UniProtKB/TrEMBL annotation, chain A:
ABC transporter domain boundaries: 3-223
Annotated source species: Geosporobacter subterraneus DSM 17957
Name this polypeptide is given: NitT/TauT family transport system ATP-binding protein
SMART domains reported in the protein's UniProt record: AAA (SM00382)
Keywords, ordered alphabetically: ATP-binding, Nucleotide-binding, Transport
UniProt xrefs under PROSITE patterns: ABC_TRANSPORTER_1, ABC_TRANSPORTER_2
From TrEMBL, chain B:
Coiled coil regions, renumbered to chain: none
GO CC annotation: plasma membrane
Matches recorded under Gene3D superfamilies: MetI-like
The protein's name in its UniProt record: NitT/TauT family transport system permease protein
Pfam families: BPD_transp_1
ABC transmembrane type-1 domain: residues covered: 62-242
Entry keyword annotation includes Nucleus: no
Amino acid sequence: MELLIKDLHKNYGSLEVIAGLNIALPSGRIHCVFGPSGCGKTTLMNILTGLIQPDKGEIQGFSNKTFSYIFQEDRLLPWCTVEENLLFVLENRYERSEAVKRVDKYLSLVDLERFRKSYPEELSGGMRQRVTIARAFAYGGDIFAMDEPFKGLHLELKKTLMDYIIHYWYDKKPFFIFITHDIDEALYLADDIYVFQGPPLNLEKQITIDIPHIRRECRKEQMNHYKALLMKK
Amino acid sequence: MKDSTIKNNRKPLNKLFIFLFWVAMWQGMYFIIGRDIYVPSPFSVLMTLKELLFLPIFWRAISYSIYRVLAGLFLSIILGVSIGIISSMNDYVYQLINPLMAAIKSTPVLSFIIIALIWFSSSNVPIFICFLMCFPIIWTNVVAGVRNVDRKLLQMAQIYDVRKLTTLKKIYLPSISPYLSAACITSLGLGWRVSVAAEVLSHPRNAIGSHLYSAKVYLDSSELFAWTVVVILLSLLFESIFARLIRKVTMRKPSAINNE
């Protein structure tokens, strides 16, 4: 499954957010959309997942797929407990017993089993973010779209989750695309980094990291080279 | 701590004082006017009320009137919620229904009562009137509630391919419930007033309104006041029962301790 974006246009009123974007994203890699805030990354993601319609242009390769979308905001049902929030998205996709099993598994992954009966307003921002991560993984879509998924998480948990994502990815090979403006996150997780500027959103450069994830920590020098590339204007 | 105990002790006393103040005002009016037929004394109203309490016909009238108000309200909630949801999801339906609601809201109740007298049997007129008056309130509030549903939650449900029915149950209904409960409480008060008014004109065999009418025919002011007091008390009672019921339904279970 390859994702093709052809001549994509999107305006909000008189503001051109995306003006004629063309990219091909091959499958079997973790893609990172990198760029400053307000450059149109989230709009691009919303078009890819079908939440908003482009004014012009075409997306190929994403039809009839299921999505696990980690939104920038938590988007949890405030009147449902953590557990009910997860079951809300699982009910249509899995049998009841399987859904319950998944809730257990992914809540423990994000270290929130103790809070399964809590309501979102009783959790801190970081905890709510973890619930949305658990929701996305428990759902297990064909495509993982993540909009700054680690925002507000402390380093240790962030690393655990990124390791889990890498592990999950090697295991299931879903299509992975995530947005960030954190250089270390991009270098830790991505195979392909697309550096954007905007608005209007335009691809400035593409960096491909050809080192397997497990080796990245010991190849400091090469990674520093990539880091320099990313930071260079 | 001390402050709040004093406040708590003072509150019922305060209420009692306010109540006594208005009863004294009433008594004062009675003294000034001095004619039972214009303003009966609080005492004679109380005595009439006491007499009524021992009549089986009093209890029958009350139960039938309660039944009519609840039936009218029930109909308006069922139809108001379903038509409200449909019309807020489809703009054509909304455009179609909206003028009707505006017309109902600004038509005098009496016009409806008179036409309903021709259409229905006397016992059903108050039910229809109660329904007709409460329906626009429920409908308007449901529409406002649906319009205020968080779009972002709906997007989330769409992305995760959640069934329409589940979305309705878990997103729409909880979002409109505060609007709906406010509408129900308003409707309850209004429902009592209009259905008693309809009863006065349609006089069914057992009804508070029929007794109000006969009190008027016999110029029995203290009975008129006594029945009115009954309507006020019933309306207040139902409102508080209903408010408590809603609080019970919407209140959450005590949850796990938050200690991160």
